[in-house]
Amino acid sequence: MPLDTVVQRVASAANLNEQSVNPNSHWVNLKGSWTTNIVLIIVLRLIFSLIPWSTPELSWTLTNLSYCLFQYIMFHGIIGTPFEVNQGAYDNLTLWEQMDNGEQYTPTKKFLTVVPIAVFLLSTHYSNYDVPTFIINFTAVLIILIAKLPAFHRVRFFGINMGQNDYN
Predict the structure, then answer these.
(1) Contact yes or no for 111/103 (Cβ under 8 A)
(2) If you ran DSSP here, which 8-state letter would residue 73 be given?
(3) Least CB-packed of 47, 61, 126, 159 within 10 Å?
(4) Which residues, other chains included, contact 68 with Cβ-Cβ below 8 Å and sequence gap of 6+?
């Protein structure tokens, strides 16, 4: 399999303007969205602890897996924007790539990187460092963290998340 079909870089239709506000990703920078992340984790943990046969180890593992899945779908799985802004500049970008006009290491991106790590550490601690549970939790958080690395900004593997214009 040729390397160019495994790893492809996405180009945007236009240069991202520093002064323009992307309504699709602007909400992520608000402190309320940070609070919503924490509340989501607490709610997930409470829901999973209500399962009759659930143990604390299972509850925290399911919380970690659910939160990682939520983050992956929300920030790395969906491309484009539902708004007609910037003449299609964001059409082939994920929400993570749209945030802060692609700038790396902003406070929001740092927060959204630290939270899955904290949930992973909590799930590992409450599972009493059980090796199979650790491997499951570590794999989930590793997938999320790799997707957030600056080296993978606008990079697609195996054509996953390639926009319509990127195949030309």
Answers:
(1) no
(2) I
(3) 159
(4) 116, 119, 140, 141, 143, 144
* Lookup: tokens for 2: 């040729």
Structure tokens at 14: 């236009």
**Confidence (pTM):** 0.83
The H or E element containing residue 22 is none
Q: Quick one: how many helices (H) and strands (E) in the chain?
A: 6, 2
Cβ-in-10-Å burial (0-12, 13-18, 19+) of 154 comes to: middle
For 129, the 3-state DSSP assignment is coil
For the chain, which ranges sit under pLDDT 70? 1-20, 85-88, 157-168
State how far the Cα of 43 lies from the Cα of 29, in Å rounded to an integer. Answer: 22
